[in-house]
Amino acid sequence: MGKSKQVIPDRRSLSNMIAERDKLIAELRARVIIRSPEQKLIQRAGRERVKLLLGGRDSAIYRRFSRKYFSSMWNGYRDKFNVRSFRDTRESDFDNAVLWIGTWQARGPLRISAEQIELELKEHEE
Fold it and tell me: What is the 3-state secondary structure (H, E, C) of 7-69?
């Protein structure tokens, strides 16, 4: 029986193998979803954003509009990140997700309604 011959790939083959491996790693990372601590952080960021926009949990505006704001924000989130729930956020999107939540604003009639209520509350305080 003869000895087996070890084949040493050339530089071009090695470069191709490394590029292929890197591509596979990137594809796998794109599929990995965030873990529970990151999920909680995103959920907390969403809660804090709505509280900030509506003047805190104790405000009349919050009591009146928080459900609609949460619904609007999470619907926008699902559309933006193409997920069924914030819990399905890809690890590669985590930083952008937190940034998106931190800058989210209500749109259309929802935003106008909250601004009108805020003006009415200020008038009643005076």
Answer: CCCCHHHHHHHHHHHHHHHHHHHHHCECCHHHHHHHHHHHHHHHHHHCCCCCCHHHHHHHHHH
Q: Residue 90 in contact with residue 27, Cβ under 8 Å? A: no
**DSSP-assigned letter for residue 82:** T
Q: Are 106 and 53 in contact (CB under 8 A)?
A: yes
Cβ-based neighbours of 56, under 8 Å, separated by 6 or more = 62
- Eight-state DSSP code of residue 112: H
Q: Global pTM? A: 0.72
As a whole number of angstroms, the distance between CA 106 and CA 120 comes to: 19
CB-CB contact of 80 with 100 (8 Å)? yes
Tell me: the pLDDT tens digits for 59-69?
A: 888 998 999 99
